[in-house]
Amino acid sequence: MKGRNVFLIICLIVIADQALKIYVKTHFHAGESHAIMGDWFRLYFIENEGMAYGWKFGGEWGKLLLTLFRLAAVIFGVFYLRKIVQKKYHPGFIVCAALIFSGALGNLIDSMFYGLIFQDSSMFSYNVAKIFPPHGYAGFLHGKVVDMLYFPIIRNTHFPTWIPFWGGEDFEFFRPIFNISDAAISVGIITILVFQKRFFKSNNQKITSKSVETATLVNDEMQVS
Questions:
Q1: What Rg, from alpha-carbon coordinates, does the chain have?
Q2: Taking the CB of residue 64, how many other CB atoms lie within 10 A of it?
Q3: Among 12-21, 40-49, 53-62, 190-199, whose mean pLDDT is lowest?
Q4: Which residues neighbour 98 within 8 Å (Cβ) at sequence distance 6 or greater?
Q5: Three-state secondary structure string covering 143-208
Q6: Please, which residues have CB within 8 angstroms of residue 79's CB and are 6 or more apart in sequence?
Q7: Catalytic residue at 182?
Q8: CA angle, 31 then 33 then 36, to 5°
Q9: Is 147 considered catalytic here?
Q10: 53: left (phi over 0), alpha (psi -120 to 50) or beta
Q11: Is residue 73 part of a domain?
């Protein structure tokens, strides 16, 4: 796979991710929800200060460390993608790596810049956040990630009472609210796990072939014509 194709994949995902985030941030108030396909697919605007699907840790310091970790991962990803393209890894693996990189970059943009370029969103319908206000809602590296994709495929049901710990509690599938970047990361990781033998088979064969060629025994009985 050529480098320009990888670059195109990354650009398409990041542009789609940021376009949807900016639209939702500037048109929805916090907690606003709209049905897209019945009740099982909705745009539900929330923001989180943590990792994918709303996981968080450590308050403001945790947020800063998470943003710096994302930045380091993106910088590493640039060199890693270049390496696997040059070494002609399996195209499927390269695409998956590009998906993961795109997702990390998309959420990094939120964390680094959204606090500077947006007003804070509120629960009031008349107070939708504006872009490029005189003052943003947070400093550099402290922006909140915009999430909106919500797939409550199974709702209004409960765990059976015989299930330990969760018996009788509300059950909903799929509960997390996420964004395109989160989806790209998840698809990339899951696909690598499912197809890892296929992705790494051709590369392992190349390494084995080179090892066999260079391991040929040379002794006095061999003649060079």
A1: 23
A2: 16
A3: 53-62
A4: 6, 9, 10, 81, 188
A5: CCEEEEEECCCEEEEECCCCCCCCCCCEEEECCCEECHHHHHHHHHHHHHHHCHHHHHHHHHHHHH
A6: none
A7: yes
A8: 155
A9: yes
A10: left
A11: yes
Closest by Cα among 108, 129, 116, 107 to 30: 129
List pLDDT tens digits, range 99-143: 999 999 999 999 999 999 999 998 887 789 999 999 999 999 989
Query: What is the span of the domain harbouring residue 26?
Result: 3-214
Give the pLDDT confidence score for residue 160 in this predicted structure.
Answer: 83
Q: Does any domain span residue 25? A: yes
What would the two tokens of residue 86 be? 């040059």
Of these residues, 39, 110, 182, 220, which one is catalytic?
182
- What is the mean predicted confidence (pLDDT) over 19-40? 94
pLDDT at 225: 44
- pTM, 2 dp: 0.82
Q: Pick the catalytic residue from 39, 120, 147, 170.
A: 147
